[in-house]
Amino acid sequence: MTVSPDRSKPSRDEIQFSDRLARSVFDALSAHIAILDHNGVILATNRAWHNHSVLGGMPPEYDYRGSNYLSTCDLTRGADSDEACMVASGIRAVIDKELDEFLHDYPCHRPDGQHWFYMRVIRIPDTDPVVVVVSHEDITALKLTEEALRESQEDLKEQKQSLEEANVALKVLLKQREEDKTELEKRFLTNVKGRVL
Q1: Integer CA distances (angstroms), 187 to 132, 175, 183, 193, in order
Q2: Running DSSP on this structure, what letter comes out for residue 67?
Q3: Distance (Å, rounded) from C-alpha 69 to C-alpha 39?
Q4: How far from each other are the two terminal CA atoms of the chain, in whole angstroms?
Q5: C-alpha 78, offset from chain centre
Q6: Is 62 helix (H, G, I), strand (E, B) or coil?
Q7: Which 3 state secondary structure label does DSSP give 109?
Q8: Secondary structure class of 153 (helix, strand, coil)
Q9: Which of 49, 155, 172, 183 is most buried, taking the most CB atoms under 10 A from its CB?
Q10: In this predicted model, what pLDDT tens digit does every residue of 20-41 receive, in sequence order?
């Protein structure tokens, strides 16, 4: 009698393939992603996170795993401290299940130009203790388009205001011309009457 293998459990090869596939998908995403535990410690980051860090000046060999994202936010000083504090509070609210998700967009300019990002923090369902995903998506193109549109609208407002001012000036000139014409007609009539008499 032969015993058939239990197909309810994946084989070691299937598990390894599944792990490689999950990692490949994780690294293929354009968003900069970090997975945090319930204390804010980074468990994993994807390739986009690593590449962005290197562009920001971090050494290529730096590994974020084990770093505490929340502590980094808490220790931020200077111009970005208020925003970092707000981000840490948002992440904690998601970890503590006070929020389902935390959303925030922010500037992150570098020497190569202006950049903006959209941050999203969500819990991974059914994890105990809680695990959260922090993603940062580059929205620079959207922000630059918004800025160009805003500037275009301001230009249109200025043009409209200039046209309105020109229209007012033209009305004043036309009124003055009518008054001058009336005055000229009166003088002409007065001169004609004077000559006739």
Answers
A1: 90, 18, 6, 10
A2: -
A3: 9
A4: 145
A5: 21
A6: coil
A7: coil
A8: helix
A9: 49
A10: 888 889 889 889 999 999 999 9
